[in-house]
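Case study: AAA family ATPase.
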Amino acid sequence: MDNTTLRFIRSVSVDWTAMPEDSYLRGIPAISTLDSLTFDASVTFLVGENGTGKSTVLEGIATAYGFNGEGGTLNYRFSTYDDVSELGQALSVARERGKARSSYFFRAESFFNLATAALKYGPSPRSTASFANLHEQSHGESFLSFFNAFESEGLYLMDEPESALSAQRQLSLLAMIDEGAVRGSQFIIATHSPILLGLPGATILDFDNAPIHPCAYEETDAYRITETFINHRESVLHHLLREQG
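Here is what the predicted structure looks like once written out:
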């Protein structure tokens, strides 16, 4: 993986004077202590427990860059429910390259709406496949079809892309991400997947124990808990089920 390429997003910074004083974001430690983030690698993973703010930060980066809040390519403009946080309005994006034309923002929670909107927008001129049949595929197959539809270098923001993928399909996605990074694409991905997090050369930013900080693969909860369960399954289940009994 080439970590010397110019980035579509080199860094983001937060103007806290643009944030409402009563914003709930001020109560999230990883976000309230955030002044700026720098993206030096082709692939950056955001990790942390549920509620630590990684998806909110990813959404803020996406909307500040110009993506639709519910996902899609840069030309998608649809809304089924206005639930975008104020963070995007307070974020400034530092670019080293022009706006990426072959790009998307993926949100697992709103993918059904995105797949429906794709019927209206049709295939992107940078896409190698039509999105017309996303609703006709299984959940996991439609996810992978969406990820695999863009071959040009671009910016790809993904929120929990593993949510509908089997372990084997997660490996396929890992290979796609690596291939894209080699071609010059940039990825920022919020994930809980110990498979995706194993991508060599990626930067991992931990949202637990604020402020946001880099961590090693083996330090992530996704790795530690999975490794403990696989290697000590009987002991883990004994303690877990006994405590719940």
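For the exam, be able to explain this: The mean pLDDT is 83.
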